[in-house]
Amino acid sequence: MINATNVHKFFYTPDKLHALRGVSLSVAPAEVVVIIGPSGSGKSTFLRCLNRLEYADEGSILIEGRDILDPDCEINEVRAEVGMVFQSFNLFPHLTVLENLTLAQTTVRKRGKAEAEKKGMELLRKVGIAEKHNVYPDQLSGGQQQRVAIARALAMDPKAMLFDEPTSALDPEMVGEVLDVMKNLAREGMTMVVVTHEMGFAREVADRVVFMDQGSILEVASPDRFFTAPEHERTKLFLSQIL
Amino acid sequence: MTQYRGLDKPKGRGFFLFWKSMFVAAMLALVAFFWVASSSVEYIWRWNRVPQYFWVNEAADVRAEAEGDVTIIDRQGNEQRVVVRDASGEEHPHMLPGEGKVLVSTGDFAYRGDVLGRYELNRPGILLEGLWITLEVSVLAIIGGIVIGVFTGLCRISINPMLRWGAITYIEIIRGSPLLVQIFLWYFVVGTLINALLEHVGFGGISPLWYGVMALALFTGAYVAEIVRAGIQSVHRGQMEAARSLGMSYAQAMRKVILPQAFRRIMPPLAGQFISLIKDSSLLGVIAIRELTKATREVVTTSLQPFELWIVCAVLYLVLTFTLSLFVQYLERRAIR
User: Fold this and answer.
1) Phi and psi at residue B98, to the nearest 5°
2) Assembly ipTM
3) Is A185's Cβ below 8 Å from some Cβ in B?
């Protein structure tokens, strides 16, 4: 499904920063991979490389066999297959909740308005905010906004979903409702790559947990192994700091 | 409301009442000053002579164009007809409006130039015509300015060097030279060349009005471009990322996500730019476009009433700009999201 091999990424603002130092990760269909690590470890950058919001400088990234680092790659087609959920929701504030869900369906998937709205309402019911379909995003709570953002990504019928710290900007009491939606999604067999600080979620849902530090993957393990018997010293230190 | 009233000691009712009345008093004092000052220079105010420049209501004569007998006086639809038959037997019909008054009867002999009938002529005066031209030029230039500005603004942030440098060159040249000079250039240089070219291939020339509109539209476009660019860049980059992550192309994301949000934000500076444009249209008088200012100047030279007419002129501009301002405020309120 997703095959990243030896991915390097540099930032030049203003000094040269080696953000990713040869990251390799494969994600199988229906697999849930949770990436954790301290801030600045490159986990978000890596996630953004997977749908080319950041262009990786070296290595190869294959999404369903398509090389997205190939300049001739139809990146818009690939992105339509890979949903993304952002830390800051990034809902379109000038559109209603339902319009947020139908916009890309009609412009990218070329669906009719009625079909797109039907699909949109279906997904809003699934994430539990169908009754709010006609309001604007700023009238929703953070948790509701993030659920709309997930529904917006799902409306494209993606084959995989990327989550970039989806609960970090939420008030504590709203984290649960978003995680519940994500858990349901995982249960339904969605391929997911999740960058998060929610260790409970990682332990419960992840098939594999990836630990990143300073631009490299230090450890990949099942959640049980990872949280009970981490191998790497850095992992032990990190876990002792947050648990 | 963006005033943080809670930051300071709360003001009592007396505070607001006092300063409101001070405002009124200041306005009255200003009016009184003008009154006293103008009476001390012995200026005679004749407001009653202003309306004639708005609406002309005068008697118009229909005069005989031939010499001979009046043979027929009848009605033709809404008009009246007086037919004069000359010595050679040729008939010359003269028409006047239905409510006009015929001053001859059949059998009368009319010399060339005799008054056959008289009617009331109602037409807009020179000031109203000037106001109309100003409005016409401004509206056309605003539309042109928006089109040019949005296009240039998008070019300005394009990664294509040709488009970006082209936009920068255009913006810097236009913003760096006086509008008056640009108007002269458009009319006397570009206008002459184009009209000569058109004549060469057998078309008529373009009227000065269109050169004026072009000059104003290009001038405003440069400023609108910078406003549009700032508006686009003020939209959070997460919006573009979200749109692109859904598979939308750059153009789709720009059109459906970024520009609608940018436009809501740039409404106030755009309104200011267009208000400037309406006022700048007063410069078009120099290329023989009789807009409001030129019309006023002409009336002043014939009537010798500069005080009234220039005040009227200013008020008319104020009506235009204030209407635009209200319209934009209405749009802003409607697009409050």
Assistant:
1) -55, -35
2) 0.92
3) no
Residues in Cβ contact with B135 at an 8 Å cutoff, skipping those fewer than 6 apart: B320
Among residues A57, A22, A35, A41, the alpha carbon closest in space to that of A193 is found at A35
Give the chain B residue whose CA is nearest to the CA of A79.
B247
From chain B, the residues in CB contact with A86 under 8 A are 238, 241-242
According to the model, what pLDDT value does residue B337 have? 55
Q: Is the pLDDT of residue B2 over 60?
A: no
B332 shares contact with chain A (CB less than 8 Å): no
Query: For chain B, where are the E strands, in sequence order?
Result: 55-63, 68-76, 79-86, 91-97, 101-102, 109-110, 115-124
Contact status of A168 with chain B (Cβ, < 8 Å): no
| B326 Cβ neighbours under 8 A, 6+ residues apart | none
Q: B248 in contact with A at a CB cutoff of 8 Å?
A: yes
Better pLDDT: A74 or B2: A74
CA atoms within 13 A on the CB side of A234: 14
Residues of chain B found within 8 Å of residue A49, distances taken between Cβ atoms? none
Instruction: Find out whether B324 and B278 touch, Cβ atoms under 8 Å.
Output: yes
Query: Which of B332, B337, B326, B320 lies closest to B137 in space, CA to CA?
Result: B320
Chain B contacts of A149, Cβ < 8 Å?
242
Say if A107 is an interface residue toward chain B (CB within 8 Å).
yes
* pLDDT tens-place string over residues A144-202: 999 999 999 999 999 999 999 999 999 989 999 999 999 999 999 999 999 999 999 99
Neighbours of A76 (CB within 10 A): 15
With an 8 Å Cβ cutoff, are A84 and B261 in contact? no
Answer whether A94 sits within 8 Å of B247, measured CB to CB: no
Length of chain A: 243
Identify the CA nearest to A232 among candidates A36, A13, A55: A36
Taking an 8 Å cut-off on Cβ atoms, the answer to whether A103 and B260 are in contact is: no
Q: Which residues of B52-80 are buried (b: 16+ CB within 10 A; e: fewer)?
A: ebeeeeeeeebebebebebeebeeeeeeb
- In the numeric block, which tokens belong to residue B309? 């007419």
Are B122 and B55 in contact by the 8 Å Cβ rule? The answer is yes
CA–CA dist A141, A50 (Å, integer): 29
| Burial of B48 per CB tally in 10 Å (0-12, 13-18, 19+) | exposed
CB-CB neighbors (< 8 A) of A120 in chain B: none
Looking at beta carbons, which residues of chain A come within 8 Å of B256? 103, 107
In the prediction, which pLDDT does B4 show? 64
> Is the CB of residue B125 less than 8 Å from the CB of residue B86?
no
Tell me the C-alpha distance between A150 and B305, whole Å: 71
B242 contacts A86? CB cut-off 8 A: yes
Q: Determine phi and psi for A3, rounding to 5 degrees.
A: -130, 105
